[in-house]
Every structure is written in C-alpha cells, then in structure tokens.
Design a protein that fits this description.
about 400 residues; alpha/beta; two-stranded antiparallel sheet; 11 helices; binds 1-O-pyrophosphono-5-O-phosphono-alpha-D-ribofuranose; binds adenine; Adenine_PRTase; PRTase_dom; purine salvage; PRTase-like
Length: about 400
C-alpha cells in the first residue's frame, strides 16, 4: 500500500522524498532502472521526512523489533527503531553473522541471494517490523518474513521507501501488509513517454509549429502530456529532441521491455539536455549576479567619492568666502587709508622739493665760498712772496682753511 493511499495524499514530504532519489538507467545491469537512495541520504530534509513518516506510523503499534535488510535496510531501520523504542535486528547476507543463524534463499530482480538472522536476536511472539529501502519482486521481504516467523516473531508490517509496482511484490508477502512511501517517478515518465511516442505520427505533435510557439488544443494532447513528463523543458526544444532521437529510437524497439529501456535512454538523454541547459542558465545567472554586484560596488564607490569631493568643495567654498570677507574688510580699510596716505605723500614731495631747493642754495654758497677762498689764497700768496715771508704766508693760508 502506498502512503498516498493511506492518509498522506497531498503530503509535500512525499514529493521531496521522490525528488531526492536518483534514477540510474542500466545499473547494475542493462535494462535495470536503478533507484539510488544515496542521493536521498545527502539531503537531510528528505532523509528526515522518511524517518518521521515511518515513526509516526509505527510509534503506537506496540512494535518491539525492527528488522533491517542488508545493506540499505541498515540505513533506515536503526533511526526508526530508536525513535519507537524497539530493538534493531540486522538481516545479513550469508557468512556475516557469528553464532547460531537461520537462513533463507530468495530471488532478486537481478539474481539470487540468501539472508541470515541470528537465532538469539528474537523472542517468540515479538511484534516485528521489516524495513528496507526498496521492494521490487518482494523476494527479499518474503525471505525476511520467513526468518522472523521461523524464530517465533509476529510480523506486523513491511515498510519500504520505494516500491516498484510493476513487480507486484506485495503478492509474495504471505498476506502481510506492505507500506511504501513513493514509487519511482521515472517509471511514470517512461509510461507517459511511450504512450506519446507510440501514437501515430499524425496525432503525435499535431499542435506543434516550429516557427511559432506551441498552440494548446485540448488538455489530453500530446503536448500536455509532454509537459507533465518534462515540466521544466521548453516544449519546442523537447519536441525537436524527440523528433530527432526519441521516436526513431522507440519505434525500432523489438518488444515491450526493449521499448521501455529505449524510452528510458531517451528520457536520460533529454534529462541531460535539461540539466545542461539549467547549468548554463545558472552560470549565466551567477555571472549576471556577480556583474551586478561589481557594478553596484563601483557605483557605491563613486557615490562615496562624490560625497567626499562634495564635502571638500564645501569646505573650500567656505574658506574662500571667509577670505573674500577679509579682502573686503582690507579694501575698506585701504579706502579709508588712501586719502591720509595721499596727504602724507604730498607733504613728503613738498618737503623733498624744499630740501632740494635748500640744497641747491647751499651748494651755490659753498661754491661761492670756495672761489672766495681761492682768491684770498692767491692775494695772500702774492703779498708774502719770497724768503721767510713766503713761509709765513703759507701758514696764514693754512689757518684760513
Ligand atoms: O524486492 P526484491 O526483488 O527482493 O528486491 C529488493 C532488494 O534489492 C535491493 O537489495 P540488493 O539485493 O540489491 O542488495 P544491496 O542492498 O546489498 O545492494 C534492495 O535494497 C532490496 O533489499
Ligand atoms: N531497480 C532497483 N533499484 C534499486 N535497487 C533495486 N533492487 C532491486 N531492484 C532495484
């Protein structure tokens, strides 16, 4: 029974869980669509949803034993056992358990295997829950039920994260209930894709016009179905890719299973196209965001520089204003001083003139006196000419100097 049919319809946690599971085509063998739960373990939110949903369901069911199937049942079993207060019993691949063990052989989707359980681990009438990551044919769960019942336990239910409905695994569980969280979304997509690709060409994409955007005719058209298979991919790209590869690939199939594997390959190729486009778009967005941040930073720097310049300019204007005020005051002072200075200047010029005139008068007088002195010297020299009288005359002249 799927969780959606049992109270969890519309619960967004189921979609989160489903989205977190990766699908690998042709692993470990050709034709197998491997449901990889390791990607779910990388997503703590989705991982916790799984544990929470199981714990909510089993916490009041009086379960004392949680049996986990090696290897992936060992991942989900212990946190659930701890949360509901039950012990955890590992069901292991052959040769791994010490002590007394019981074992059961079973068939797998891709081979045969055997499970073993320790005899001491289980008490009679214990209420047990079997946990595994996935149910396909139900061979593994069936072997687990057998082991527990052989040891005397009562199996209340089997629980798996993923169920592959096409194998009808629940039919092999001896009437024990099976509780499954999600079915592989890839299977649904493959079925839808096959449905579209198997339609006659005339009906396949009749609404598609390569030159224009697609026209939607009716809700059940191929394009609508494609939209549900590839919700993120641009329809024109999708239709072109399908026309180029998908249709040829699927119409060449030799049977139903081969067609499914081929459709899966087409899906995988288209998924790659989609993710490559997403990566390019993300890179472009990243670059744009970086460029935007850089530009924003540059503009901010420029604005800051402008604000600083503006402050400097304001200060310069203020200083200039002060200087202007000083200059005006000095000018006023000068204006007041000029008449006084002019007066002083004129007086100085007049004084200078007076002095020059006086000087000239004095010079004339000096010349006059010198001439008179020369004349007197000559007359005295004439009067004291000869002998000692001449010497006397010289003395008189010297005195006159
Ligand atoms: O319903 P079934 O057809 O039995 O298949 C389901 C089992 O197959 C897988 O384990 P697998 O045997 O691959 O072992 P692993 O966990 O060790 O890889 C899965 O984890 C289940 O245990
Ligand atoms: N398709 C599948 N994916 C993952 N594990 C599986 N075990 C059996 N079938 C499987």
């Amino acid at each position: 029974m799927f969780a959606v049919e049992n109270g969890l319809q519309g619960d967004p946690r189921l979609q989160t869980i489903s989205d977190a599971i990766r699908v690998i085509p042709h692993f470990p063998k050709t034709g197998i669509m491997f449901q990889d739960i390791t990607t779910l373990l990388l997503d703590p939110v989705a991982f916790k949803h799984v544990v929470d949903i199981f714990v909510d369901r089993y916490k009041h069911m009086n379960i004392s034993l949680v049996a986990g199937v090696e290897a992936r049942g060992f991942i989900f079993g212990p946190p659930i056992a701890l949360a509901i207060g039950a012990k955890f019993v590992p069901l292991r691949k052959p040769g791994k358990l010490p002590g007394r063990v019981i074992s059961e052989e079973y068939e797998l989707e891709y081979g045969n295997d055997r499970l073993e359980m320790s005899m001491e681990a289980v008490k009679t009438h214990e209420r047990a829950l079997v946990i595994d990551d996935l149910v396909a044919t139900g061979g593994t769960l069936s072997a687990s039920i057998n082991l527990l019942e052989r040891a005397g336990a009562e199996v209340v239910e089997c629980a798996c994260v993923v169920g592959l409905p096409k194998f009808k695994g629940e039919c092999r569980l001896k009437g024990k209930p099976l509780y499954v969280l999600v079915e592989p979304s890839h299977d649904i997509r493959i079925e839808s894709l096959l449905h579209i690709l198997r339609r006659p060409a005339s009906k396949r994409f009749r609404c598609y016009s390569p030159s224009k955007s697609p026209i939607w005719s009716s809700p059940s058209s191929s394009l609508d179905q494609l939209r549900t298979v590839f919700p993120h991919l641009e329809l024109t790209v999708l239709v072109k890719a399908l026309e180029d590869h998908g249709i040829r690939e699927v119409t060449q199939s030799t049977g139903n299973d081969d067609a499914k594997v081929r459709a899966a390959t087409v899906l995988e190729a288209l998924a790659k196209v989609l993710s490559a486009r997403e990566q390019v778009a993300n890179k472009f967005q990243d670059c744009s965001r970086k460029r935007y941040r850089l530009n924003h930073w540059r503009v901010q720097q420029q604005v800051e520089a402008l604000i600083k310049d503006n402050a400097v300019l304001k200060r310069a204007v203020a200083i200039q204003h002060e200087r202007h005020k000083d200059t005006n005051q000095q000018l006023e002072l000068l204006k007041q001083l000029i008449p006084q200075n002019t007066r002083c200047f004129l007086i100085l010029i007049l004084n200078k003139r007076k002095m020059q005139v006086n000087n000239y008068g004095l010079n004339l007088r000096i010349q006059q006196v010198e001439q008179e002195t020369v004349c007197r010297k000559d007359s005295i020299r004439m009067s004291f000419k000869g002998g000692t009288g001449e010497e006397k005359a010289t003395n008189v002249i010297n005195k006159l100097r």
